[in-house]
Sequence to fold (284 residues):
Amino acid sequence: MKTSMTMVAATIAAVGLFIPSAHAQFGAAPAELELVRVQDDLYVIYNDFVPGNVTALITDEGVLLVDNKFEIDYDNIMAQLATVTDQPVRYVVNTHYHSDHSGSNVRMQALNAEVFAAENARAKMIEAGQPGLPNVAVEEHVRIYLGGKAVEVFLFGRAHTDGDVVVLFPEHRVLAAGDIFAFGEDTPELIDYAGGGSARAWPKTLDAALQLDFDTVVPGHGVVTTKQEMRNFRDETERLATLVREMIMQGRSRDEIEAMLRAEFNWADLHVQLGLDGLLAEMR
Fold:
């Protein structure tokens, strides 16, 4: 079955990399948000399309967020949280550097929230001139305690970027996967080569994440789903890399490989422009 990897992929890339035309369209107006209860005191602030999902752990000692959308979405995020708690945001984990996942850092740091991200993600934010640099850099693993509950942050390797972390809520058996996994119609496997992403490494990174003990997944984009759907996505990342590698070995042209990606994985124009050359270089 074909995976939908459409213009959303390219749009998310463009937003994260600050391509002006896309940034003018996305992140220029607040998203319409919905608060979805996942389990007990764990919620997702969800919207269709971009920006990405926000996962919220609500405790009597404060709130921990995984990702925080664009800065323009800050007020709406806080309004959604106010419907279930009056506690402050204490911690934020950026799953990677793209601004649809880290754009509200400055506003939340102004409330004395501490922001965590991978060291590589922080470096990319510096390169891009993004505000709200994380206060705490994660190299492999960190455990955060809040309200008597543990939250575990893991960096397993390159995938969407070279600074993707996943966040495990062990008591809930829920994983916030960031953009190493997107789920549903019109959601991408986007390889951000400028951000250190890797089609070759992505399946192995997902394999490591899938070793964690969880049942439910909050994808970076798309609705809350199951571990099995994340396994299915992992298989598609491997299939994409394998097909491209085989076509290169057969001496197929760039145009032929592009046509395959469009037909098999629904790549669109901007997706091709942003990812194809990096993919071909990596697979050679």
